[in-house]
Amino acid sequence: MTAKNNLTAQPFDTSSLKKCMLTGAGIAFIAISVFVIGAGQGEPAWGDYWMIKPLLLTPAIGALGGGFFHMVLTFFSNNRWNKAVAVILGVIGFIIIFWIGMVLGLNGTMWD
Description:
Blueprint: H1 14-37, H2 52-76, H3 80-106
């Protein structure tokens, strides 16, 4: 008896991944924009362009959080209960990743 190898390539939907990543980046950009624009003066060592680092870094990490949300939703959405758990885990993961992105973006520019 020979072992049968059933490793076939599964189709991967990149359009929904792109949508989740763009949504995550958009949420992060809006949140960091409100925070940075309302903050006033940043760290004097960064000069007038201190806003560039948080405005670039936080949406990029927010896109990674959106990708994480998509991956969790893809792996755990077999039935209705798994999908509900996947959404909760995905949102919690996105919030944690987004928070880390805000801290990394604002570290050094507004905080010492």
